[in-house]
Write a structure and sequence with these properties.
Layout (H helix, E strand, L loop, with lengths): L4 E4 L8 H9 L6 E2 L3 E3 L5 H8 L8 E7 L2 H13 L4 E6 L4 H4 L11 H14 L5 E8 L6 H10 L5 E8 L10 H12 L4 E4 L5 H10 L5 E4 L1 H5 L3 H5 L7 H13 L3 E2 H12 L7 H5 L6 E2 L4
Parallel strand pairs: 1-9, 2-4, 3-4, 4-5, 5-6, 6-7, 7-8, 8-9
Antiparallel strand pairs: 10-11
Helix pairs in contact: 1-11, 3-5, 5-6, 6-7
Bound molecules: flavin mononucleotide.
Length: 296
């Protein structure tokens, strides 16, 4: 197995500038995938620059695009490449009904031909840049990956898959069979590397998953990374504080310079869970539109 890559999962609404900055300062990640840039038309250069700016730093950045119009998404990729974006990802996994109803995000999984058109259009627009795909195992049935994964791999345009083991219909519900589904994803992807995603919250779970699926290219952790911000470092065997101290360190680093109260509540709920959130009573007592600062 090549050295596995550990990825923080993209999280729209969570990946604010202060959070990204704190994570970079604490060296919690080695790479970023942006949350989705929703493409409806080709964004202006200013908009693209503003979208990418919070991710700018030492870590390489993969820009995630999501849309249903191959022409617009391809033109957006080209525009982003022109201002320096180096690596691209297509989102075929977002389960939001607003998104899927128009055939974007996870909605694309219902139309393998459409996914291929999108992938080929984007690759044609950015032929020299790596293009990966983040997707789920199906729209309503994990057996769907049997059909689309080999076809997407056969385009020769995808350099990596990020597979969240659930179907779109399963949203974030607890479902059994993660290992079996992802094992099949690896087989179906053939020679295209696969990063495994879904419910990895501890180093023990990651180690067990990688022991069972040693051909994977790595692991992506989204919510687990927020519950233990040092998780990706832990997976690499780097020095780390205990999880509780890590949560505290990270929350303080994010909110130090002032962070919106509503976002602070959301982040602390992610970090500790609603029931065990040590900041909750303090935060809800503040005006919702004010700033909270751990420095005070
Ligand atoms: C709040 C939130 C926002 C998310 N935003 C995105 C996104 O912008 N792009 C994406 O590909 N996945 C997004 N996801 C999905 C995660 O990246 C990941 O695939 C999913 O949560 C399963 O992994 P986990 O069990 O490690 O959280 C989001 C998930 C959450 C919880």
């Amino acid at each position: 197995m090549k050295t596995p890559e550990f990825w923080p999962g993209p999280m729209e609404g969570v990946m604010t500038s202060p959070l990204l900055r704190a994570a970079a300062e604490l060296r919690l990640v080695r790479r970023w995938m942006t949350f989705f840039l929703r493409v409806t038309g080709v964004p202006k250069r200013k908009h693209l620059e503003a979208f990418l700016a919070p991710f700018a730093g030492e870590e390489p950045v993969t820009l995630q695009l999501m849309g249903n119009d191959p022409v617009a998404v391809a033109a957006t990729a080209a525009a982003a490449a022109a201002i320096g974006a180096k690596t691209f990802n297509l989102n075929f996994g977002c389960p939001s009904r607003q998104v899927t109803s128009g055939g974007a995000g996870g909605g694309a999984l219902r139309d393998p031909d459409g996914m291929i058109r999108m992938i080929e259009a984007v690759k044609t627009a950015i032929p020299d840049r790596p293009l990966s795909v983040k997707l789920r195992t199906g729209w309503s049935d994990p057996a769907e990956q049997e059909v689309f994964l080999p076809r997407l791999a056969a385009t020769g345009c995808v350099n990596k898959f990020f597979v969240h083991f659930r179907t779109v219909k399963e949203q974030y519900l607890p479902v059994p069979g993660r290992e079996e589904r992802l094992k099949r994803s690896l087989e179906l992807a053939g020679t295209v590397p696969v990063v495994l995603n879904g419910d990895v919250e501890t180093p023990e779970d990651a180690a067990a998953l990688m022991a069972e699926l040693p051909d994977c290219a790595g692991i992506m952790c989204a919510r687990g990374w927020l519950r233990d911000p040092f998780l990706l470092r832990r997976l690499e065997g780097l020095p780390c504080p205990e999880p509780e101290e890590g949560r505290e360190t990270f929350f303080r680093a994010v909110t130090h310079g002032g962070f919106p109260v509503n976002k602070s509540i959301e982040l602390s709920n992610f970090l500790w869970g609603k029931e065990r959130n040590p900041y909750f009573s303090r935060l809800v007592a503040l005006p919702p539109h004010s700033l909270f600062s751990s420095a005070n």
